[in-house]
Amino acid sequence: MTEHSARHDDEEARVGSTSHDRRTEIPRPVRANGISLCCATYGDPADPPLLMIMGQGTQLDGWDRSYVDDLVDSGFFVIRFDNRDVGLSERIEGTPDTAAIRAGDLSTLPYTLDDMAADAVGLLDALGLDRAHLLGASLGGMIAQLVAIRWPQRVLSLCSIMSSTGDRAVGQPDPDTIALMRRPAPPTREGAIEAAVERSRALAGKGFPFDEDAARTRAAAAYDRAHDPAGRLRQQAAAIAAADRTPELRRLQVPTVVIHGNDDRLVDVSGGRATAAAVPDARFELIDGMGHGVVPEAWPQIITAVRRNAARATAVPGDVR
């Protein structure tokens, strides 16, 4: 048994030892799109499903548990999961040459964002869900967009947070910020945690206080659960190789809300504005002072936008699942 699978089994055992109620997390591996994904579900399976898709290198608990509980209280059956190459989901072999990929040579690309979108659809299949509301952040927003583009019949509504269209003319990062994000991971646990805190500080918006202690606690928990810089690099390569989705977004007929902070130094707010402009009848929510990260102070505005957008979804006869 690998260390990765042992951790997964340990996590399942911890949850299996508790009594189950409407909020109990049930982390488990499922086969989706030919690989193993770790997912957790919350709430009443009879409620409309909402699939939360996290960003590059971020595990499922990057969605704070209080956010999940608020969504459950709002009437959703919530699913969060580790994307491929992160957390307790399956690792994909390969070492991408990101410089070559930027130049158009995709020979070292291990997989694409379309593959990651197919993972999300495969997860819905594995859970027996015909349709779901989608909530994606950063890279997760790009993946959610592709699910809506490729499988619109599986999507009830779309919420894209701090993401972009793939058009290189918009959503570009601040040079200093992207340079920091691309630094190699330190080799020690302590170094990796401090580097994660430094990245969090750089991404934090000026409109909200930066909680260094909370950032360090999150970084330590993420490291101890599953630390794998190589997986993050492969996800980054998939994002670099992605084509501009603008023409396909213009054909979407899915209720869409786009949310972005005006102090985002990793994905400039122009990326969010362009996404909202591309999708017919999309709504745009600007969060003043938010950087690249969902902060507790902004969550009430975000969850209100998600609920209103979900309410726009056309009612489907029978079981919404």
Structural overview:
The protein has helices at 3-16, 65-73, 98-102, 113-126, 139-150, 175-181, 189-203, 212-225, 229-241, 246-249, 269-278, 299-311; strands at 28-32, 35-42, 49-53, 77-81, 132-137, 155-161, 256-261, 283-287. Helices cover 40% and strands 15% of the residues. The chain has a single domain, classed as Rossmann fold (3-Layer(aba) Sandwich). The protein is globular and about 50 Å long. The protein has 321 residues and is an alpha/beta fold. The chain contains twelve helices and eight strands. Strands 1-2-4-3-5-6-7-8 form an eight-stranded mixed sheet, with helices on both faces. Keywords: Hydrolase. This is Alpha/beta hydrolase. InterPro entries: AB_hydrolase, AB_hydrolase_1, AB_hydrolase_fold.
If strands are numbered along the chain, what order do they take across the biggest sheet?
Answer: 1-2-4-3-5-6-7-8
Outline the biggest β-sheet: 8 strands, mixed
By DSSP (H or I, 4+ residues per run), the number of helices equals 12
Element-level helix/strand string:
HEEEHEHHEHEHHHHHEHEH
Measure the end-to-end span.
35 Å
Find the structural class using helix and strand composition: alpha/beta
Query: CATH homologous superfamily name?
Result: Alpha/Beta hydrolase fold, catalytic domain
Helix content: 40-55%
CATH third-level topology: Rossmann fold
Reported CATH architecture: 3-Layer(aba) Sandwich
